[in-house]
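Cross-posting from the modeling subforum.

Setting up a comparison between two proteins and wanted a second pair of eyes on the formatting. Protein 1 (sequence, then structure tokens):
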Amino acid sequence: MTRVKKPLRTPAPGLRREADRRAWVVVRRLVQSPAVLSVAGALVLATLVMIAVGVDPSVAYPALVRGALMDGNLEYTLATYVPTLGMALAFAIPLRAGEFNLGGDGQLSLGGVVAAALALHAGGSYVVPLLGATLAGALLAGLSAPLRTRLGIPAIVSTLLLSAPAVSLASYLARFPLAELGTGLAQTPLLPEAARLPALGSSAYVTIALPMVAVLTALWLYADARTVPGYEIRALGANREFARYGGVQVDRLAAVTLAAGGAFAGLVGGLIVLGPPYRFVDGALTAPGYTFTAIAAVLLAAGSPPAIPWAVALLTILQAGGQGMEREAGVPSQLTQVVQGLIIVIVAAAAVMRDRLVVRRA
């Protein structure tokens, strides 16, 4: 007895049309999103600048991609991506609650110097220095909460003002109490072997900081979207008075988000110091501009948590690939900073125009 194969069932024409319509809506929303339009507009303007100065864009852009992802540069790009993503979370977590943490440089530097001090004098593995760095960043950012609730100083001001003395304190510690003797350089001695972060495989730059930050990012994305505190933080950011009326402990939750952002920044400082070159060097944590690039990425993603890692990846590629573009195409690497600035300007202009359009329609 032979079994008769049933014909494959195909969806009805109406269902196919509905699926096609939904797919088209998704694609249209993606293309028309502020992030995509901002990146496209910035690249168009950058292309016009290249043409104006006599540079062939068809040579410059491939050189940028090779300088970031090929020719052995991928691990350097990944090493840059890790602290930038961490600093993006340091800004994005308080932003979800309507708070602006602009003190990333201070929290980063303080966390780095605390990690170096603990690694040099406390002994043991890298766990204690990382915990100390995280706590130092959290405490520094958490100071902004009582300044806001008791004195009415906005976090956007207090975090920025607290950043400068924190950077100066880290510089003083690196130059005097923790300085490497006999060199005259503003840096600590090499950290003990036990306190150094293990490398991933045979990489010279990428350490276990990459999976650590990836896991923490995934946990934050889950907490933001799937937990009660995540919902309360979103409600606080959307409407503070409505959240208060709904029973949310507004001041306490704002303080927690600021401290969480500072904790991420301090942790990033510790991860940088415990990785190559395994010491705290004065200015080495703030010079690359991780904080500015991270804020630009969060603004590019419009504060949307799932989009932040992708926005960070884009800006990291631009930043890391600038050296290759300068080397091969003769385009100054500062052009990538111009592109980042243009992206932020376009994002801000689009947000203002969108708000005005909403008001006009209302």
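Protein 2 (same layout):
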Amino acid sequence: MTVKPRHGLTEQAADAAVDQACRMLRLPTIRTQFPELAEAAAREQMSYRDFLAELLIAECDDRARRRSERRIRAAGFPREKSLRAFDFDANPNIDPAVIHTLATCDWVKKGLPLCLIGDSGTGKSHLLIALGTEAAMAGYRVRYTLATKLVNELVEAADDKQLSKTIARYGRVDLLCVDELGYMELDRRGAELLFQVLTEREEKASVAIASNESFSGWTKTFTDPRLCAAIVDRLTFGGNIIETGTDSYRLAQTRAAQQA
């Protein structure tokens, strides 16, 4: 089918036609940026092909940006954290090269686990959220949750006979970020339900956790030693372990501010 070009349209009529066509075809970026890009094309004497390419690239870039924003919102992060804002100088225990390698998300692609272990205020949650955000921006489905919140949700789902659906929902995301693991003791039932989620994801999809307890101290969270050992095995096999140390960055900042 040969499309006959339309001749004789005024500039105003052409702009109106572009606006209407973009609405029908759902091209919001082209619709909003068309006047500016058309003026730039005229000034720079761009060819028709170059001008069309600029329009389509602008639309594709904006769609990719919006998809990333939707994935970040869907992850449920409690606050915005980025690797750019992380102060590596304040915590010499953390190797910037290792973190930036993790930011490439190759470990998420391979379905490997990540453990961030250290005292409160050493940057665990910051790194967890920042790396989760990097994964969302790279196109992966990410979900963030607190350990206690996840366990409570699983217990409620089990009581409502919805456990399989809930575990399957957590199993579908590419990266599950579990924060504050080890802050509170879990009863046997809660620990077993958490173990089911980890087993569902084992060697298929990544889990990243942040904990203020070393692995030897996890027996305070998971009181059954055999279950505790099995959970540690699920979260460490083939994965990365980052120890953020014991010196609180937040406390150091507070003291510095008081002294100033």
